[in-house]
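Section 3.1: Structural characterization of target chains.
Under the original work plan, the team committed to producing a structural model for every single-chain target entering the pipeline before any wet-lab resources were allocated. The record below documents one such target. The sequence was received from the expression subgroup and is listed exactly as submitted; it comprises 296 residues.
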Amino acid sequence: MQRIQGIIPPMVTPFCADGSIDEEALRAEVRFMIKTGVHGLAVCGSTGEGHTLSDEETRRITEWTTDEAAGRIPIITGIITNSTDSAVRRAQAIADLGPAALQVTPVHYVFRPGDDDMYRHFDTIADRTGIPVIIYNVIPWSYLMPPLLTRILRDSPGVIGVKQSASDMKALADLLLLCGEAGILDRVRILSAVDALLQPSFVLGSHGAIAAILTAVPDWCVALWNAVRAGDSANSLRLHRNLLRLWNAIEGPNLPANVRTVMHARGREGGLPRPPMSPSSPEQTWRIHAALAAAE
């Protein structure tokens, strides 16, 4: 298994005005990310509007990213679907490309599976595809609590990690504690998607992060990871303040568009959101530029 740790930005999908995907913009962003020193890349997640992608589009994005990365960093592919079978089909469509892992949400329709059903969902995907699975714990009405996550990580060998989202720092702390008590923390990966609190996430012992703020400013986040690991608390707190200001400016329902606005402000091409989502509003754009200008 490729090493999954550190700063793993979830890339935007650069859509063109006609809804197609801009291959060259995506490849250019992969090259940029690698130059900043990131430790991996995730594609087709929520920042990449994976819920709008077809199986074929997921394959193309994974293929282009994997080709451009050329084995230098691990590539994780997001799977956002509403049934076990559809998740397996999408994963099988990319299996030959050798992704390091799948980042899989619980089903995101209004009905929540029971805990045993949740276990079977992730275990079946890992078993039928042979690809390691990271649970993307983000769907409010299909939320998995730390005891259930720990059970899945302990009992399903193909499920190798959790991306803890939903701004739930307590769940992240509990998950790290429970996995440690279960003796599995050394073989699983607990990754933070609590964008506003990456610095304390790293201090608590998370194995890294897959979070939208990483895509907006990967260089700041790599510097934060390195500062925490070096015990440089003054620098890590400075970076935390910069990231918090920026997160307060981009957080919202139009998050993928707002990440693109940061990218554009910093000279990168992120394309357009996929309809019905629109670009950032003028007010949001102003707030983003103000937060960037306030960086210490």
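Residues 193 and 211 are 5 Å apart (CA to CA).
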